[in-house]
Write a structure and sequence with these properties.
Blueprint: H1 2-13, H2 45-58, H3 65-79, E1 93-94, H4 99-105, H5 113-121, H6 127-134, E2 141-143, H7 144-152, H8 160-167, E3 179-181, H9 193-199, H10 206-209, H11 218-226, H12 228-243, E4 254-255
Antiparallel strand pairs: 1-4, 2-3
Helix pairs in contact: 1-3, 2-3, 6-12, 7-8, 9-11, 11-12
Length: 264
């Protein structure tokens, strides 16, 4: 659940800012962005709503779903041994969702380094912050369809034994939803092992392995692989910065939703 909540917060902030729009379901007045390709496998909606229900009992109409999601991501990190950070509060919930924005703004697992850098830059995040936020892949799982091409392409940037191991549960055809841990070594612990995996050409996602390809981000991967403390502190700082994306927008386009999946 920790990985799901951190990912959900990321996917929320990267489209329209941190406004809880990722939580909205299809309705007669809007099209949800949940069906966008980059949102494949995004889950954790029920946990956010459960928290919202409890908060509403104590202080109805005060705490937004966007703020609950931001706090949940922080608490999820702490629960699996990751860093904590101060969550700025005061976000309001969007009354709209952008399926096209989700399709264009969210990173895809097969994109090259320059494309990824561009997507993060447009959100005000630099190369270092992109690399450290990618470290969230120290926990969680990925669906076969998101890494199949990588483990079957016999490229020079993947360890052959690692590829064969991953092929056991991810056939060349079928099994798109089969899950594999992003980190085989410590899949449930928030640590810096994901960067060590990249040094060994054992990144499961192509978009992770491309962070170590002789380019501008290599130095950050090497730094975080050597220093878990630096990774932890930089991750916390980057999460705060990401959480600031359009966090203070007000007006008629924003509200405090009573139910996170629907506009009031």
């Amino acid at each position: 659940m920790a990985a799901l909540l951190i990912r959900l917060h990321f996917h929320d902030c990267f489209v329209q800012g941190c406004d809880g729009s990722v939580l909205l379901e299809d309705s007669s007045s809007l099209t949800s962005k949940r069906s966008a390709l980059p949102n494949l496998g995004v889950r954790g909606f029920g946990a956010v709503q459960d928290a919202k229900t409890e908060v509403e009992k104590i202080c109805p109409g005060v705490v937004s779903c966007a703020d609950i999601l931001a706090v949940a991501a922080r608490d999820a990190s702490v629960a699996v041994g990751g860093p904590s950070w101060t969550v700025k509060l005061g976000r309001r919930d969007s009354t709209t969702a952008s399926l096209s924005g989700a399709q264009s703004d969210l990173p895809l697992t097969g994109e090259d380094l320059n494309t990824l850098l561009g997507k993060f830059s447009r959100k005000g995040l630099n190369a270092k912050e992109m690399v450290v936020l990618s470290g969230a892949h120290t926990i969680g799982k990925a669906q076969c369809v998101t890494f199949r091409t990588r483990i079957y392409n016999n490229a020079s940037d993947i360890d052959a034994n690692f590829a064969r191991t991953r092929q056991r549960n991810c056939p060349a055809t079928g099994g798109n939803g089969n899950l594999a841990p992003l980190d085989l070594v410590t899949p449930n612990s928030f640590d810096n092992n994901c960067y060590k995996n990249l040094l060994q050409k054992k990144g499961l996602l192509a978009s992770d392995q491309v962070l170590l390809n002789g380019g501008s981000t290599d130095a950050f991967v090497n730094q975080y692989s050597r220093s878990p403390a630096t990774f932890s502190s930089d991750f916390a700082a980057a999460m705060v910065k990401m959480g600031d994306i359009c966090w203070n927008i007000t007006g008629s386009a924003r509200q405090i939703r009573r139910i996170c999946s629907a506009v009031n």
